[in-house]
Amino acid sequence: MVGAITTRDVLLHPFVTIRCFGWRIFFKSLVSRRKQTFLGLLQENHVTTTSKSGVAEIVGQCVDLERQAGQIYKLLARSFSDDEPIARLFETLARQEQGHAELLRLCGLIAEREGWDAANFAPWQETVPQLMDQLSEVAAAAGQVSDRVRALELALEIESSEINYVFFGVVAATKSNFVKSLQAFHNTGCEHIGYLCREVTTLEPSLADACTVLRERQIDSFSPGPE
């Protein structure tokens, strides 16, 4: 099983997986196809929600943020297809954003089943539409950029926004031992920014200071993960 949640994650946390999704999903996740994602498995087995509740709307908007960021990275990867190191960086960032979107969709599904702490997410409620506007501006700039330094600056601009805080706001507001226990929900932000800063510092040393600021501002603020 591939994607944000792997077979290894399920094996490391069998009891919380069974409590949240039942024995059938647990066993199917162990024998799933190699290219199967955990979210896809849930959808195939109708462990989904068609709710139009506020939770579904809120989380759906946050998923859209991650997808929009991913589309920007895909655009930059195509624009710099002749610059292999830069293209590879943006392709990887796009895949990571896809993983973030998958994790948020799981949070939305689980929150509908197990509960949502609206007060916990409240600080980020008004940030979401502002981020949508900000990413739209970055997308417009990305469509015209031809300089590799400016392209890398756009990536730093995305990750210096509050998009990662919103991600962790959704995770923190989802009342579920499954979400609380699995490292994927908690480590992905630090790994994402850590990867970006390492690559950018190597590719363009002049942006090293900006990467340091990003790491100090974002990584140190993220949840350290489940105990």
Summarize it:
The protein is mainly α and 227 residues long. The protein is 75% helix and 0% strand.
Describe this structure as you would to a colleague.
The protein is mostly helical and 227 residues long. The chain folds into 2 domains: 1-48, no CATH class; 51-221. 75% of the residues lie in helices and 0% in strands. It is built from 13 helices and no strands. It has helices at 7-12, 14-21, 23-30, 38-44, 54-79, 84-114, 118-125, 127-142, 148-160, 163-173, 177-181, 183-203, 208-218. Helix 5 runs parallel beside helix 8 (127-142). It starts with 6 loop residues before the first helix and ends in a 9-residue tail after the last helix. Mean pLDDT is 91; it is low at 223-227.
Cα Rg: 18 Å
Q: N-to-C SSE series?
A: HHHHHHHHHHHHH
Count of helical stretches: 13
Number of domains: 2
Helix content: over 70%
- What fraction of the residues are assigned to beta strands by DSSP? under 5%
Distance between the termini: 25 Å
Structural class given helices, strands, pairing?
A: mainly alpha
Uncertain parts = 223-227
What is the total tally of β strands? Answer: 0
Mean pLDDT: 91
Biggest sheet statistics: none
Morphology call? globular
